Amino acid sequence: MDSYFHRISIIGLGLMGGSWGLALRGHGFPGVRTGSDRPEVLPRALAAGAIDEARESVADAASDADLVILATGVGGILDLLPQLSRAVSPRALVTDVGSTKRLICQRAREVFGKEPMFLGGHPLAGKERSGIENAEGSLFENATYGLTPLSPDHLSDERVQAFFDLVQGVGARPFVTDPTAHDRAVAYLSHLPQLLSSGLASLIAEQSAEEFFPMELAASGFRDLTRLAESPYALWRDICLTNIENIQTALESLIQKLESMKVHLSDRELERDFKQALKLRERLRAAQGSD
After folding, report:
1. What is the CATH number of the domain that holds 149?
2. Helix, coil or strand: residue 139
3. What is the side-by-side order of every strand in the sheet holding 32-36?
4. What integer pLDDT is reported at residue 291 of this predicted model?
5. pLDDT value of residue 289
6. What is the CA radius of gyration of the chain?
7. Helical packing angle, 102-112 and 233-242, nearest 10°
8. How far is it, in rounded angstroms, from Cα 225 to Cα 194?
9. pLDDT digits (tens, 9 = 90+) for 91-119
10. Domain shared by 145 and 62, yes or no
């Protein structure tokens, strides 16, 4: 892997940050990977090969990096941006992996001004379990990687172009979008599925506490639909708080759809929903090139 960046600092070495480090190593990144996290996490990240150097101080880790990847939760990213604006080199690029983008990009614009020093990022990849122990070097392969520049003209900056190359170098597909459009879309395509999964699992937990529910009758459909319910609340708390209006709208739309399906359980109108859903699944398979 050829790289414009020589020293990459990863702040937060959980699933996403650890996977970035492992992906860089797996694809032959020739530079130095520095990591920063809690003291108990750093030895595990070093042992896993996710980083070459460990630094407890965020400012210290970022000071000599030419690329900084913020891989904490959304709330942590919002808190770290002002610190980084004072710590990073004016020639560095800062990016993130947050699942919401509007407030992060707004904060970055406030602290970095008009300079193309920040590029919003959201790898549409992940697992329901977090932590460095679940990081994988192949996590980003064939995944869409959302990128939200603060201004369209930032796309011509050599640092931004170099990050595009890096994203492709670890096997992902860059997709440029506006922060506001991004947050509205992921409210339906990512955040709603999570809440649906957690809500269904919570409902069954409550029902089974009141009456006997033999879980042996839970087949693959139930297991598949509730897989996301293993995701930690700590991660989703900040996502919900920073995209609340879009998520509320998505939930209201889903409630209306379920109410309609409830009304039409005994007539052919329900068939229309099934056919419409099947067509969407076919489009999704075709877009992803999967079976």
Report:
1. 3.40.50.720
2. coil
3. 53-54, 32-36, 7-11, 67-70, 93-96, 118-123, 144-149, 173-176
4. 42
5. 65
6. 21
7. 70
8. 9
9. 999 999 999 999 999 999 999 987 779 99
10. yes
